[in-house]
Amino acid sequence: MQLTAVRPRVPERDLVAAEQAAAALLTALGLDVGSESMRETPARMVRAYADLLSPRPFRPTTFPNDEGYDELVLARDIPIRSVCEHHLLPFVGVAHVGYLPGERILGLSKLARVVELFAHGPQVQERLTKQIADWLSDQLSPKGVGVVIQAEHLCMTLRGVQATGASTVTSTLLGALREDARSRAEFLALTQPR
Ligand SMILES: [Zn+2]
Predict the structure, then answer these.
(1) Where does Zn(2+) bind (predicted)?
(2) Which end of the chain is more exposed for a tag (fewer CB within 10 A), N or C?
């Protein structure tokens, strides 16, 4: 099984129109984008969002599981940065991603790249968690997959209810990590939110 490079779809962009629209938005909100200190703000906003919304392509390197390794492979504390699709404000946190290998294993650094691939916004944390788990399940046919994400949503902690420091935890467990009590308990113990 040879996996091909993953080339995420980058949407068509008109950065000039985006910059004009950003200036119009800020002006409508009562901000003075003609002032010296904010003159470049619409362009900087557009660059920042374009960056946040652009995933990097990657090649998911897999290896045959020649030694028949059948214990949990787990990458903890993979940084997450994404943008919520409801407010277009960032959410940041960590992901713990693990699987019980079948016939193939994935290069360890690739677990973080899979997270990054799906974290480019606009996203919601529940979907992000499930997409990562489903992707690993499809690509590796492992015996089990587990994904836990703990993130702080700025739309929640900076405004609205202002629940500063509150974090949201989501998880998806598939296969043996869902059904086998021992595997499930091991995975959940190792990924305890802190
Ligand atoms: Zn939000």
Answers:
(1) 84, 87, 155
(2) C
Q: What is the structure's pLDDT at 22?
A: 97
* pLDDT tens digits along 90-117: 999 999 999 999 989 998 889 999 999 9
CA pair distance 23, 92, nearest whole angstrom = 26
Where would I find the H helices in 9-105?
Answer: 15-28, 41-52
Q: Is 155 annotated as ligand-binding? A: yes
Residue 69 marked ligand-binding:
no
Distance CA 12, CA 179 (A): 42
CB neighbour list of residue 125: distance below 8 Å, 6 or more residues apart: 82, 84, 91, 149, 151, 153, 168, 170
- Answer whether residue 1 shows pLDDT above 80: no
What is the whole-number distance in angstroms between the Cα of residue 41 and the centre of ligand 1?
22
Distance CA 153, CA 82 (A): 9
Average pLDDT, the chain: 90
Residue 55 CA, ligand 1 centroid: distance in Å = 20
What domains can you pick out in the chain, each with its CATH number?
A: 15-52 (no CATH), 62-190 (3.30.1130.10)
Q: Which residues pair with 138 in a beta bridge?
A: none
100: helix, strand or coil? strand
120 is in an annotated binding site: no
pLDDT at residue 85 is higher than 60: yes
Cβ count within 10 A of residue 137: 16
